[in-house]
Amino acid sequence: MLAAKRFDYMLCYPSEAVYYQDEGSELLFYPIDGDDQLLEGRFSCTKGAETDRVFLEVSQLVNSKKTRPTFLTAYERWLPANLIKHYRKKLANLPKR
Asked: Could you write out the DSSP letters of every residue in the chain?
């Protein structure tokens, strides 16, 4: 609908703006004042033993010092370039687990 010019603006997360942008278009992202907290990502799936096992393994991978840079780099590819520095600063200020 955005590409078809059926509306002029939308409210979304920064990574969504990059997702919706296509060649030849320029989307701008404006942060909402007071909304400067990072939100943790979430997974969801049907309940079951296999799901519990996979989620445990994924959680361990995401929180591993060895694989964490890979996940962060992958996430940053979805952020607008002008927000990466801000994102890294917020990430560095998160409480250590």
From this structure: -TTTTS-S-----HHHHHHH--TT------PPTT-------------SHHHHHHHHHHHHHHH-TTTHHHHHHHHHTTS-GGGHHHHHHHHHTSPP-
Cα 27–Cα 39–Cα 26 angle in degrees, nearest 5: 5
pTM: 0.57
Rounded CA separation 82/13 (Å): 14
Q: What is the pLDDT of residues 25-78, one digit of tens each?
A: 777 777 777 766 777 777 788 889 999 999 899 888 877 888 788 888 988 988
